[in-house]
Amino acid sequence: EAGVTQFPSHSVIEKGQTVTLRCDPISGHDNLYWYRRVMGKEIKFLLHFVKESKQDESGMPNNRFLAERTGGTYSTLKVQPAELEDSGVYFCASSSYDRLGQETQYFGPGTRLLVL
Amino acid sequence: RKEVEQDPGPFNVPEGATVAFNCTYSNSASQSFFWYRQDCRKEPKLLMSVYSSGNEDGRFTAQLNRASQYISLLIRDSKLSDSATYLCVVTRGSTLGRLYFGRGTQLTVWP
User: Fold this and answer.
1) Are A48 and A55 in contact (CB under 8 A)?
2) Nearest residue of B to residue A105 by CA position?
3) pLDDT in tens, A31-43
4) In angstroms, rounded to a whole number, what is the distance separating the alpha carbons of residues A67 and A88?
């Protein structure tokens, strides 16, 4: 079974430009999460989709970040305009529930974003 | 105060050693607890969930103390392949699904 995939793996852009990150979750997973790790800090939650609906977007840093999940399959995270402090690794995760109802999140390899 | 606090290490131990990592969480409403493993420049992967009764998976033992808001991970008979960063992760019932991460503890096992 294919895991969570993310594209691109790396992106280097200049301040003020726009970047769009894509995440393809594991097939059949309704929950999709975006997280970010800024250098030297812990991984932090950005937002959570259940199918195509935003369940929780309280972790989004500001209105320069826009996430979508049209059709409840893949998701995109757009940063417009990018700022220096947006540099970091952006992880996507999707989740399933085991027979005990415990949720397990599976992470994609991440997109390394560098804003110059 | 951070949601999850970990000793960043690094821990450098020889093969065969036993090593223990500790983690504390600040929110008493935390509901689920995990240890994730992250290899260099890779994604986090679930190592094991942590239950109140404690649980063991091969060489790995996890313990949870809700009263002290403390989680531990014990690795016995360390292997070279155990070298990685170990992330302490919790969830809250009020923010369904959202994971709160510690900064991670770096482990290097040397031959």
Assistant:
1) yes
2) B46
3) 999 999 999 899 9
4) 17
